[in-house]
Amino acid sequence: MLSSRPYIARGLYEWLLDNELTPYIVVDAEREGVRVPQQFIQNGQIVLNVAPTAVRELKMENDVLSFDARFGGHPMQVFVPFDSLIALYAKENGVGMVFGHEPVMPGYDEAMADETKQKEERPVLESVDTSETDSEVDKAKQDDSEKESNQNASGKKGAGKERPSLRVIK
Predict the structure, then answer these.
(1) Is the pTM above the cut of 0.85?
(2) Residue 163: which of 153, 151, 155, 154 has the closest Cα?
């Protein structure tokens, strides 16, 4: 199953922009694959302004958030794998979301393989010999007819009317 984090982050980012707020992200700069300006890292984290006026070519794919920006006048391409994204919030009022640690999810291919395996382990319906089943149904109908005629003969109320009934056919 895919991580929900990139989907939530994209929605939250759009929501902040629609409300004319400045989106900031907090990144765990010590995680593998993170490429951020090292001179601005504090306590293993970095806070980055990701507003459209601050970055170029912002891409929020399912595995990585990337953009081009200038830090101290030097251009840099920033890469933030989504598992290293700690929070996304508005600069003006702090509204946003802190992302907790997600459990490790199997990849899409692994999930599909597990689903196929589960399907193979399920019981399979097979056709039954209809001649045997038909004779059992006929016998059950005959038994019901005899019971009904006996009830009608005994003078019970509602004689002559068929009552719905359920029966188990083995």
Answers:
(1) no
(2) 151
57: left (phi over 0), alpha (psi -120 to 50) or beta: left
SS3 of the chain: helix, strand, coil, percent, to 5: 35, 25, 40
Nearest Cα to Cα of residue 94 among 37, 16, 158: 16
Domains of the chain: total: 1
CATH of residue 62: 2.30.30.220
Dist. CA 151–CA 28, nearest whole Å: 81
d(CA 36, CA 16): 23
Name every residue whose Cβ is closer than 8 Å to that of residue 65 and which is 6 or more positions away in sequence: 6, 9, 25, 50, 58, 59, 79, 80, 81, 82, 85
Structure tokens at 140: 């059950």
Q: What is the tens place of the pLDDT at every residue in 52-76?
A: 999 999 999 999 999 999 998 999 9
